[in-house]
Amino acid sequence: MKKSNESLRLLVLSAVFAAMTTVLTYFVKIPTAGGGYIHLGDSIIYLAACILPTPYAMLSAGIGGGLSDLFGGYAHYILPTFIIKALLASVFSSKAQKLLTVRNAIMLIPASIITVVGYYLTKVVLLCTDKATASEGFLGAFTDLTVWISAMSNILENSVQALGSAIVFVVLAFALDRVKIKSKLRRTL
Q: Residue 93 belongs to a domain with what CATH number?
């Protein structure tokens, strides 16, 4: 019975983090020139990944990010976002007593790389899909250097997005560690 209650509580906490990710991604955003936006949802993904077991954090991250894309009119980004956000959550650890550990701080670097590279590759695939014609096909568009160069247009905004979320995560994690949030959550799970 206890294991079932723990699983239910983890599922509910995962849903709360997914909802927070959606809200901070969809409602708190700064539009960019490239048609995208900068948001703070990734900072919640990082927090969730430092609190929840990895499978729960990955699902929460993917669902939260994907729902934001759905609500925001970016349905073509739902699958790539689900994968990218789940990968973000996978690099952090929830095993320590604190959220802000040296390990989790260092993991902000690969998380940022995952964001930038993941959305760059997504942009390449979307541009190839747009460019592909009956005569050229997807593979022809995929080998076109102009597609790869055009996709670079979002690297700066994705880098700023990753940096902003990292800073917000550090501030939130520090504050939540001061009130010993992990030990309080562990008592309820």
A: 1.10.1760.20
Mean model confidence pLDDT for the chain: 90
What's the structural domain count of the chain?
A: 1
Radius of gyration over every alpha carbon of the chain, rounded to an integer in angstroms: 18
Domain of residue 154: give its range: 2-188
Report the C-alpha gap between 180 and 174 in whole angstroms.
Answer: 10
The pLDDT tens digits for 123-137 are: 999 888 877 765 577
Q: How far is CA 124 from CA 7, 41, 105, 108, 129, in A?
A: 39, 23, 30, 24, 9
Whole-model pTM?
A: 0.90
- Residue of 179, 11, 129 lying closest to 3 (CA atoms): 11
Half-sphere exposure of 164 (CA within 13 A, CB side): 18
CA–CA gap between residue 102 and residue 92 (Å, rounded): 11
pLDDT one-digit tens code per residue, 30-58: 887 766 678 889 999 999 999 999 999 99
Beta partners for 30?
A: 38
Residue 183 has what pLDDT?
Answer: 87
Inter-helix orientation angle 155-178/41-51, to 10°: 50
- Pair of tokens at residue 5: 């209650």
